[in-house]
Design goal:
The protein has about 130 residues and is an alpha+beta fold. It is built from five helices and three strands. A three-stranded antiparallel β-sheet has the order 1-2-3. Helix 1 packs across helix 2, helix 2 packs across helix 4 and helix 4 crosses helix 5.
């Protein structure tokens, strides 16, 4: 059902855990399948994502997409990260079974939710 890359990312995911003093946190979930993703980011004053991590409760595909998505945004600007799509996450993984494509959507949504948190909450605290 899963290709080697998905199995690798599930078995040894990148960027797991919580970032202390994260200034961007995005949480998304899908009640239908039970997958919940939480992405933490440390974004510097220049809008660069210096550090990123995740906690995901879900299936192998949910964990694999979280792992790959965090690796894809690390070191990117906010604008670059916002352009990452679920299709790019799927491509990076080398594909997903049709019934697991929703996991890549959750990963994209979690990235956007974290950046939105940064832009609406963290950036406005100084004002």
């Amino acid at each position: 059902m899963y290709n080697e890359r998905v199995i690798k990312e599930f078995s040894a995911p990148q960027n797991t855990g919580v970032i202390k003093h994260a200034n961007a946190v995005g949480r998304v979930g899908n009640a239908a399948c039970g997958d919940i993703m939480k992405i933490f980011m440390k974004i510097n004053d220049d809008g660069i994502i210096e550090d990123v991590s995740f906690q995901t409760f879900g299936c192998a595909a949910a964990i694999a997409t979280s792992s790959v998505a965090t690796a894809m945004v690390k070191g990117k600007t906010i604008d670059e990260a916002l352009k990452i799509t679920n299709a790019q996450v799927i491509e990076e993984l080398g594909g997903l079974p049709a019934q697991k494509l929703h996991c890549s959507v959750l990963a994209e949504e979690a990235i956007k939710a974290a950046i939105n948190d940064y832009l609406t909450d963290y950036k406005n605290k100084d004002k």
